[in-house]
Amino acid sequence: MTRTDLFRKYKPAILKLSNLEEDTLKSETFLLDHDEKKQLSIYYAPFEYINPNAKVVIAGISPGLYQMRQSFEAIRDLKDASDEEALRAVKQRGSFSGPIRKNLVTMLDDLELHRHLGIETTLDLFGSANHLVQNTAVLPYPVFYKGKNYNGSSPDMIRTELFKPYVEGVFAEEMAQLQDALIIPTGVNVRRAVEQLVERGLLDGDRVVSGFPHPSGGNGHRHRIFAENREAMKQHIAEYFAKHPI
Known about the structure:
Elements: H1 3-16, H2 22-25, E1 31-35, E2 40-43, E3 56-60, H3 65-77, H4 83-94, H5 99-110, H6 113-117, E4 133-137, E5 143-145, E6 148-149, H7 164-176, E7 182-185, H8 188-199, H9 222-243
Parallel strand pairs: 3-4, 3-7
Antiparallel strand pairs: 1-2, 2-5, 5-6
């Protein structure tokens, strides 16, 4: 079943919901996959949209409960829109929202990504320049470990069999559709997953910027990691867009 088919399957169920409480969202209706022994569950949420014009990909770990709820709200608000319009709105509404966005923008602007994209600030990627970015996750659907948002490290993402079809299948296929887009993995666990795809020949390593920290305010090592990798990342971005000008 393709991702488009999944949306067509689940859209009626989303529209019929009486509420968007946690127990409603994390119900059997939307359960895609689970590993009872490892206490892992993967649920459906409408994050299928792929921006064909994207010049940069910002990749996170997995949508959380907040993003899941936001995505369902968007589909319900746009019930009369076309499927493509509704799915595009999902990506625009929930991607890297809240304080995490401010941290992300500060670091990306410091790397001068906005200059290479021809915009005033990377904050515009979440507004007027949304057509230039694909915000996504290596685990494209919401994942929960022991009922909480999965953090990418416990259990180890690249050693967990349940995740393999999503990282090496869904995410890798998404990146294949965006052949010229620069990929910025946010955080060490996302980077490890993306670099594994490079090692397996599923991604061109030249597209991947390594060393970008997870922008969460809870990441106490964020500033140190960014400072250590800043110059190498800045150079990588400049060289990539010199080869692939917009």
